[in-house]
Amino acid sequence: MDVFLELALILIVAKLFGYLAVRLGFPAALGQLIGGILIGPSILGLVGFDEAVKLLADLGVVMLLFLAGLETDVEEFKHVGIPAFIIASLGVLIPFILGYVGALAWGYSNIEAMFLGGVLTATSVGLTTSILMEMKKLRTRVGTTILAAAVVDDVLGIIVLTILVGINTRGSVYFKDLLIILGEVVLYFGIGLLIGNPAVREALKLSERITLPETVTAFAIAIMLIFAYLAEQFQIAGITGAYLAGLLVASTDEAKEVDRKFMTIGYSLFIPVFLVSIGIESDVRVLAHAGTFALIYAILAIVSKVVGCGFGAFVSKFRPIESLQVGVGMIPRMEVALIMANVALNEGVFDSGTFSIPVTMVLVTTIVTPFLLKWAFSRE
Amino acid sequence: MEILLLIAVMLATAKLMGYLFERLGQPVVLGQIFGGLLIGIFFETNPVIGQFANLGVLLLLFMAGLESELEEFKRVGKQSVVVASLGVLVAFLFGFAVAYLFVPLHEAILYGAMMTPTSVSITVKVLMEMRKLNTREGTTILAAAVVDDVLGILVLTVAISMIKGGEVNYASLAEVVLSVSLLLFFFLYFGPGLADRVFRILSRIDLPESETAFALVFLIVFAFLAEHLNLASILGAYLTGLALGQSSKKKTIMDHMNVLGYSLFIPLFFVEVGMRIELDYILHAGLFAVLYTIASIVSKIVGCGLGAKLAGFDWGASLRIGVGMIPRMGVELAMLAVAMGSGIIGPDALTVAILMVFVTTVITPPLLKWLYSR
Prior knowledge:
B: mainly alpha, Na+/H+ antiporter like fold
């Protein structure tokens, strides 16, 4: 199908299914996910998911996290640092242990089990962000904590992956690689805060003086893209970079205007395309062939994050219901988990059968998250 | 993801170079193309960016349609139609004649078509500065520019459909003209009312930015439809804008599409045009480009001037109107992109078109000021 026509179809599906979901009392994102599954390869096969549409979707999630950064209460963010660290750490540790032990018990080899445990550690917070934003819960202590914990989780995930690759290739933890990775992370955030902060400020101030239409917005887009690009150069997820960029822009004078314009651009095109594209990329046919362990693994994925992050929140003095909300918000595994599984595939640790286990897990966590989030937040 | 960096660089270039050129008294678009030329040395454009740029073209034409004041046009009416029609006719003939000396028949037809529309934003700015916009000449120019956009796009559409596959096909001419007229009638007569009704139903969807998203959907669907009917996609985009511009949703859609267009897709288009220019072409274009540019200036002064005289203006006013209709900018380049997309002409046409854009936009303000001060 023509690329643009595909895009038009995706937009229609996004708005119609989103509307239906809202009418039925669910987050619009759930409807968009289901709409995506419907037009995707597993059911109707209407869209080929062209590269230009894929880029729109990628930009959509980047924009979502940038907006989340913009709308984050920066003061609050500074206060949730320690809780976020505890939550993310437990949210990496417990999924890893459960995944590892579960896989060992099912008869996988030690190294396979380690990678299966590792894949469970990486939260992808895009879906949660869109739902929280929709429910107007992003700007709460729970929302801010989830985002902060997701940043920490991203960094911990890279460390876990580096350790696993080291163990696989050399039989031991390879400290030099680990130091390089840690150095890169420190460097990225260091540059981002020390140079990035004044640079963002000056760039936006300059853009105010340029009288062409929408210059401030165009500059903000460029800033967002550069942060995302550099993050990826430093092994960090692009969305984490975009979130950092959003946080920095949030404290500038242009924050309000950028926020308003990004809402327009984001929600008229990019973000709906992202949400529908999650559905398009979820091939539900996988479920039909999923083995017993794949389902157990998916359940472990859900339980381990809820327990790990929830417990982390609880010991950080969150109320029980808030702890549950934090735990549920951290459930979704998407691109980072798949990247890890891909590494395992390329390293020869996974065969294609083993690879389908994380794929099933990603699908299940993606589908259950909207329901669980709605449930967790309606219990207040 | 190199592409993220590339988009960021293109956006920053578009705004900085555009601003620089504006400060130097040159058109913004030219700065953006020049910026594209510069970064083209370090980066190569890629197909996905090309798709984004195509969306920019559609948005550009959609905005042009949206901003067209049909009311204004009804008020000044006949005079502007005469001015615009003669301007388009003469421009087409001149452009065709000059191009036919250098290139084969089917390419020459396209070169003729590309010369037809006018971008009056520069003229408007000059007239505004001199407080002459709300004169009879000013409104005639404004309204003529609307007519002239439509006619220009029609001419290009007819040209492209006639030349399918590189052969001139006169048999389909009648067919094309008929389908274009039907489309035009449908959009102008039913479009606005239909748009109102559809948007009233859609307004029940209270998700953020639904209206803008559906405006995009209509834009894409009708652009595709036009393309599918063997017409140019920009015709569909322009007519969709025109129809929505007469509906009650005009304001919201215009504000939001402006943000979407000018913060990303439209600047990307102009910078991408620059990135596709190869320095070789500029050196080779030479005589053809120069003659073509001269033809573009003379044709509008003669065509629109004569039209104005016929419509009852005196010679002085006719000359001013003719000069006011000289500038070529956005729409011409969008048409060029479409013509290149159809595979009928190659990227060397860019050089010719850009020289025309440069010269026509640069000479118009001083010429106008001089004419008014006499």
